[in-house]
Automatic annotation (TrEMBL):
GO CC terms, sorted: cytoplasm
Record GO terms (molecular function): phosphatase activity
InterPro entries, per database record: His_Pase_superF_clade-1, His_PPase_superfam, PGM_Phosphatase
Any single Pfam family the record assigns to this protein: His_Phos_1
Protein name: Broad specificity phosphatase PhoE
Length: 214
């Protein structure tokens, strides 16, 4: 029996002082704290003797910057996979901080009619389909070892719920997918046998509380 682990790493904190829902917009880099988070995760993985043989990131800048120290720590080249990109969102580019902005604007209300799909962006099922395909390819590529995929909160959370058999519809406030967290999927041969969730950079969370973002 061959054991393989696929780590889904969410990127670190993003520099976003205006509270924009940045989605897939270019130019959103890690903040200084986000850079520190990426370094902590890399140190965590290398210092605990993880058998990582490949590191793959979403094409977005924040994911690439989070993945870079991990790849460097293991002496690996960083690969990119478009399938693990952030969810598409029709509210992208609008201000959403402090519970206002896009969500309170009447012009956006027609986009909010079906939260189960969701009607404002890429369907949950579509996100799971592309993420599960990427995970399966990653499992095959790293069979018998470990691989890190650097992605984004919603795609990672939906992938976890899919593997655990949960409904894809959920309360966003209850996502267990904090900044720079690891959702580690464990396989025996091609069979999913469980997962483990860790927050290596928790010491950098403001007030030791969960941080909002994508």
């Amino acid at each position: 029996m061959v054991s393989t682990t696929v780590h889904l790493l969410r990127h670190g904190e993003v520099h976003n002082p205006d509270g924009i829902l940045y989605g897939r917009l270019p130019g959103y880099r890690l903040s200084d704290r986000g850079q520190a988070m990426a370094k902590i995760v890399a140190d965590h993985l290398t210092s605990t003797g993880r058998d990582v043989v490949r590191v793959v990131a979403s094409p977005l800048q924040r994911a690439q910057e989070t993945a870079a120290p991990v790849a460097q720590g293991f002496g690996l080249e960083l690969a990119t996979d478009d399938r693990i990109i952030e969810a598409d969102n029709r509210l992208e580019g609008q201000r959403v901080a402090d519970g206002g902005g896009a969500l309170s604007s009447p012009r956006n209300w027609p986009l909010l009619w079906n939260p189960f799909r969701p009607s404002w962006g890429e369907p949950y099922t579509q996100q799971v389909t592309r993420m599960r395909a990427a995970v399966e390819d990653a499992r095959r590529a790293a069979e018998g070892h470990e691989i890190v995929l650097v992605s984004h909160q919603l795609p990672v959370w939906l992938t976890r719920r899919s593997f655990e058999g949960g409904t894809l519809w959920h309360d966003p406030r209850n996502r267990q997918c904090n900044l720079a967290s690891l959702t580690s999927l464990h396989f025996e041969d091609d069979r999913f046998v469980g997962l483990h969730y860790t927050e290596p950079a928790a010491e950098l969370y403001p007030g030791a509380s969960k941080v909002a973002g994508a």
